[in-house]
Amino acid sequence: MAAPPAASFHTPLYAPPAAMFNIVPGYEGTVAGGGGAYIPPPPPSVPMPVPEQAPNTPDWHIPSISEDRAREAFATYVSSKCCYSSDPVSEGVITNMESFNTYRYRLETFIEFRSTEWSQEPYTGQPVDAGVQPAPGPGQSAAQPPAFFQEHKQTIKVPYTSSVKRDCMLCNGSGYRESDKRCVNCSGSGRKNCSPCSGRGSCQCDTCRGKGKLLIFININVKWSIDKDEFVAQDSSGLKVEKLEEVSGKELYKDAQYMVYPVRGFPDASVAQASERLVRDHQGKYAQTSRILQQRQTIELIPVTKVNYMWKGKPYVYYVYGNEFKVKAVDYPDQCCCSVM
User: Fold this and answer.
1) Coil, strand or helix at 189
2) Tens-digit pLDDT profile for residues 195-235
3) What InterPro entries does this protein's entry cite (predicted)?
4) What residues contact 15, with CB distance under 8 A and at least 6 apart?
5) Can you tell me the distance from the alpha carbon of 322 to that of 53, in angstroms, rounded to the nearest whole number?
6) What one-character-per-residue DSSP string does 85-103 give?
7) N or C: which end of the chain has fewer CB within 10 A?
């Protein structure tokens, strides 16, 4: 039996035309397939917090590490490099150590974003409730949020929006797709069954799964996500800021509440300025499109120690940084070219 090629039978799910959907008050602008209307956030349910000053700490600085600790970290670093000789570690003489206090400010905003879309599924006898009573408003559908700062997604089917479209738009309610194209598998002779349709000449409709009818309804897609921004105060140590992304520091300040206020009274003015800017940006960014559930800001002090040493009469430098005592060596003096056989 003549049949079209396999690719002609498996048409992907499609987005039905807008006329297929009813108008539901409160959900104007909702389209099929997502990307439609977003739901404005409800007004804050708790009062705005009172601004808090940064804590008054007598000493924001961390003492420089000892020479023994610096040498131990250096030895561990060199041992991890297959082409580095250990001679500069054992023979090098430390001439000076400088500590640099680098502050890292981090702001995290935990938000809830909602959008609506028309969805569809094959109709197999599910309840049809559109028009029974008004659908609840977009902000009235309860969602179960995860713990703060845990990303998650949830889909909520809106009650009283489900209706049946009698005919599937692709198969005209037959449940099957047909084509008069010549089958390339049997060359139109009909002597060889076409595997996609088993020789019937038609295949089950992918959209309605052969039922001929579609149930359409509105879904609310809820997404909880974290927006995070950081600022690292520049120091004069010479270590690239990117290296500090690998390590942690000592937490000096932490503030978590519904909406935080910028840090005040911090010794480094650049950190306070960054806090002011990022808090304003985050709260302005999400005020119209999302709901802020919680904000968290922290300040870490990342210890950076610049170690100057001499080896064979020449000066060299390496850095020990972070709570993990990571090392960055500048122009390590005794390297060899090696290859793995």
Assistant:
1) coil
2) 666 666 677 777 787 778 899 999 999 999 999 999 999 77
3) SSUH2_homolog
4) 31, 32, 33
5) 26
6) -SHHHHH-EEEEEEEEEEE
7) C
